[in-house]
C-alpha cells in the first residue's frame, strides 16, 4: 500500500451566517498518496477551496470553521492542532499557491528577498545562503537570468513569470504537500500549459504530492493521477484519471466531461451544459443532491442519499445507478436517451460518452 500523505475524513466545514452555521463541505473524504497528484474538480461553489482552506487551517481566518472530521497529514490530525503549531507546517511542510500570483507577492520587496524570507524563517538559513538558495529556486522554475531577476520587483515581471516566482517560493522549503487552487486560471492558454508542465516536472524532481483544485477537466486530464469530483459540497466520484475519463459513473461527472470546451464531438461543436444550477448547500434537495439536474433521476434518488461506494479497483461513486438491480432499468433508459459522443482530451485520452 502506498503511503498516504493526506487523508481527509468526513470533513464538514462552513461559515457562521445570520441564518446560523452554513456548510460549505459535507462529509468530504479524500486521500492522497505520497508523490501523487489529486485533482479536485467541480463547478463554482462546490466547496473545493473550502476543502483546501480547511487542510491549511486558513478557514479559521476566513470566518469559517471545521465542524467535524479529520485531516490527517502524514498521520497527524491537523484539525486538532493549535494555530501556533500550524505556523510550523504552513509555508514549510504544506505550501499553497493561488489563482492570482500578484496577491501572493509583496509589491515592496524583490522576489529574491521574498523567497529568501521563507527559507530564513523555516530553515533558519543565513541571509546569504537564503539569497543563493532563492536564486537557485528561480533557476529551477525556469526563470532565465535568475541572478538579475531575483533583484526585481513583482511589477517588473509578467503574470506567468510571477506565477513561477510563487511556485519557487512554495517549493523553496521542499514541502511534502503543495496545494494549488486554480493555479493557471488567471493565465493565458500558452502560459497555462507551461505552468502545468512545470508543476509536473517539479513534482518528479521534488518528490512532493500535489492537491490541485480546478474547475477545468482538461487541466485535471493533464496533471492528475486521481480525480475527485465535488458537487454541492460533497465528493460524488473519485478514481484514476483513466477511470474518470473512460468509465465515469456519476451523471454529474459525465455532464462535466461533455461540457469540456474545444473538443470535437458529434454534436456540431455545440457546447453541452448541465441543466439547472448548483443549489446552495443550505438548500439541498432531499435524497441525492444532484437529482434535480440528473438526466437519469429515479424515484429512489429523490428519497435517499446514495453512499460513496468503491468498486474493487477503488473507483468511488455516489449514485443509485450503481445499485445492483436498479442498474438494468437505468441502463436501458440511458441507452435510449444519450447519443454517443467521442471526445479527445489533449493527445492522450479518448472517451466515448
Ligand atoms: N468567507 C465565506 N463566508 C461565507 N460563505 C463562504 C465563504 N467562502 C466560501 N463560502 C461558501 O462556501 C461554499 C463553497 O465555496 P468554495 O469557495 O469552496 O467553492 P469552490 O468550489 O472553490 O468554487 P470556485 O470554483 O468558485 O472557487 C460556497 O457556497 C460559498 O458561498
Ligand atoms: Ni475556489
UniProtKB/TrEMBL annotation:
Pfam families: ABC_tran, oligo_HPY. One of its GO terms (molecular function) is ABC-type nickel transporter activity. SUPFAM superfamilies: P-loop containing nucleoside triphosphate hydrolases. It is an enzyme of class 7 (translocase). It is a peripheral membrane protein. It catalyses: Ni(2+)(out) + ATP + H2O = Ni(2+)(in) + ADP + phosphate + H(+). Keywords: ATP-binding, Cell membrane, Ion transport, Membrane, Nickel, Nickel transport, Nucleotide-binding, Translocase, Transport. GO terms for biological process: peptide transport. It is found in: Cell membrane. InterPro entries: AAA+_ATPase (IPR003593), ABC_Ni/Peptide_Import (IPR050388), ABC_transporter-like_ATP-bd (IPR003439), ABC_transporter-like_CS (IPR017871), Oligopep_ABC_C (IPR013563), P-loop_NTPase (IPR027417). Residues 6-257 form the ABC transporter domain. Its EC number is 7.2.2.11. GO terms for cellular component: plasma membrane. Belongs to the ABC transporter superfamily. The complex is composed of two ATP-binding proteins (NikD and NikE), two transmembrane proteins (NikB and NikC) and a solute-binding protein (NikA). This is Nickel import system ATP-binding protein NikD.
